[in-house]
Amino acid sequence: MAKKRAVKRKSESNVKSESDDEDATDYEVLKIVDVRYTKSDKREFLIRWKNYSPKQDSWEPEENLSCDELISKFLEEQEKRSKEPAKQLRKKPAVVKRFASPGHRRSKRTGSNRKNYIEAEDGDED
């Protein structure tokens, strides 16, 4: 199995070393966490480094990475995830069938039958 290595460049603010070879240090990639595309359509990967905490994850351009197997495996997994249907946030409620007729409801408070009032016609119409 090929070693998973990437070159992580030191930032410009660090003190320059005596030779250019010491500027680029090889770090071992533990896994690829995420991918993003820059405005110039270049891919950058969020890299988790071996023996470093997740707080030290960094975005690295694809050109700086030499772990082709991990990149292709990560991109395949991303493609599989995008093809899966999105999960529903909430399931549709089940339809409840009632066997009792809706006209004979019982009151929750008293337990007696519900009173139905029928309007009576006034016979005083002259």
TrEMBL record:
What spans are recorded as compositionally biased (Basic residues)? 103-112
Known PROSITE patterns for this protein?
A: CHROMO_1, CHROMO_2
| Subcellular location field | Nucleus
User: According to the UniProt record, where is the region Disordered?
Assistant: 1-23, 78-126
Q: Where is the Chromo domain?
A: 27-86
Entry keyword set: Nucleus
Q: Name one GO cellular component term.
A: nucleus
Q: What is this protein called?
A: Chromo domain-containing protein
